[in-house]
Every structure is written in C-alpha cells, then in structure tokens.
Amino acid sequence: MQTATSITNFLQQPYALTNEQISFYQKNRFIKLKDVLNEETLNFFNDAITKTVALLNTELRPLEERTTYEKAFLQLFNLWLEDEVVKELIFSKRLAKLAADLMEVDGVRLYHDQALFKEPGGGITPWHADQYYWPLETDKTVTAWIPLQAIPLSMGPLEFSAGSHQIVSGRELEIGDESELLIQQKLKVTDFKHVIEPFDAGEISFHSGWVFHRAGANKSNEMRKVMTIIYMDAAMKLKQPENQNQVNDWHRWCPGATIGEIINSPINPVLY
Ligand SMILES: O=C(O)CCC(=O)C(=O)O
C-alpha cells in the first residue's frame, strides 16, 4: 500500500484552531473538531488500519466469554511500529500540532497509539480517567480519538463529562464495572455536562488524561473503528508509579526511562 502525495501533504497542513476552541478545551478538557481529516485521507487509513488490526488481533473468544473491559473493544497497540503506512498518520504534524496547541505546550511526543475497534454487539466502555494508568508527572496529556467512519449514537461514540478533570475521587479506579457505577454516581450529583453526540466522518475529538469519559455499546451491525494517538508534553517526566498498572505502563510504553527525568525512549518520539 502506498500513500498518495495528496494525503502525505494533507497530513502536514495545520488545522486552523481558534482561541475560543483552545479556551473551550482548557475549560472542559475535551473538544470535538469537525473536518480534521478529509474523505480521501479517512478512507485510506480506514483500509490500512483495518488490515493491520486484522493481522494483529488475537481475540477470538465470543463476547459473552469476556469481561466488561474485554467486551468494550478490540485493543491493539503501537500500530506505527507494525506498518509504515499507519506510521504516517501517527506522525502527522496536523494532528500533533493540534495536540500541542490545545495543551498550550511547545512540543509533544508519543506516549503510544492504539486501535479501539468496538465490535457489533460490543459492550459499553465504562467511565474512567486514562491517567490512572500513566506514570506521568503532569496533566499535559491528551488523546486524539479518531473515528475511521461516521459514528452515530447507535455505535457508541465517545462521551465526556465536560470539566470533570476537577473531580479527584474516581481517579483511582481501573476500567470496569466498578468504575462505571461509582463514577456515574459521582457525576450525577455534579453540574458537569454529560456530552453524548455522534461524530461526523472526518470529525475527531481530543480529551485530556484526567477528564472522565465513557462510550455506549455498539448496537449496530458494523464495527465501530477508531484509532487513537496519546500525546504528552515533549518535556514530560516519568513519575514514581502509584499503582501496578503504572509500573506496567512504564516498562511497556517508556522502556528504560528514569524516574524524575524526561521520557525520551526510542518509542516516545517527538511528533511536533
Ligand atoms: O473508544 C472507546 O470506547 C473508549 C476510548 C477511551 O477511553 C480513550 O481513548 O481514552
């Protein structure tokens, strides 16, 4: 598979972000942006990522034999190391600059990427905050959530609790039935708006590491295909891990990094 020059060029072009959009992100710690990817680019990477996921996937059990987490999606990591074409999307300046501008940092590097394919009949993604898993010193982290097709409500688009990064309780929960129940109970008695909207083709969202989010089940007959890129401030330091998941993430996603120092392993390249 070869990437057309028009796509390579498009991935370098900046997306015009307004000051209002940056303020919205800073306040709510998520944002949805339309037309970040054009039709040609989206269809091309839909094909490339679908093929890579099919090659890498080892989950063959029926949904009813899996845990709530395992029912939520097929989860495949660091596709950029597996496929040169997918790497072009992960290394896109257009996306990385958006991440840097929203976080108001000078540069970003990759934490890791992952494909999140919610199968037809796949379950909910329970409420959670991502940064519980990450041994990272500051909150300058953001995930680009990139649907590879339009996502109507029936397919389980990503939902956000706007501004909920301010809530500390619930951050200590890993993704599962308990996080869904306890975080939902907590959010119900707050004024943070629960945003549940479909995504158009080409629309993508960015959410920060401590904002609570979830997704509904996939009630359609089609795979909900999503690619994600997790960025961190290029100056991010490794912190002393606070739980076993953070120890695991350290060795898996920042191999060889030293506590208290900038994370600069070969799999954490600066992308902008
Ligand atoms: O795709 C999903 O269902 C959940 C995604 C998510 O939680 C994330 O990207 O942080």
Share of helix, binned? 25-40%
What is the string of helix and strand elements?
Answer: HHEHHEHHEEEEHEEEEH
The rough form would be described as globular
Mean pLDDT: 97
| Ligand inventory | 2-oxoglutaric acid
Radius of gyration: 18 Å
CATH architecture: Sandwich
Record the strand order, biggest sheet. Answer: 1-8-5-10-3-2
Largest sheet: 6 strands, antiparallel
SS content category: alpha+beta
Can you tell me the CATH topology? Jelly Rolls
Q: How many domains in all?
A: 1
Q: Work out the number of β strands.
A: 10
The name of the CATH superfamily reads q2cbj1_9rhob like domain
- Helix tally equals 8
State the low-pLDDT regions, or none. none
Cα distance spanning the termini: 25 Å
Strand content: 15-25%
Question: What do you see in this structure?
Answer:
The protein is of the alpha+beta class and 272 residues long. It has one domain (41-253): Jelly Rolls. Helices cover 29% and strands 20% of the residues. The chain has eight helices and ten strands. The strands form two sheets. A six-stranded antiparallel sheet has the order 1-8-5-10-3-2. A four-stranded antiparallel sheet has the order 4-9-6-7. It is globular and about 50 Å long. The two termini are 25 Å apart. The model has no long low-confidence stretch (mean pLDDT 97). Bound molecules: 2-oxoglutaric acid. 2-oxoglutaric acid binds at residues 72-73, 116, 118, 125, 130, 143, 145, 158, 213, 215, 226, 228.
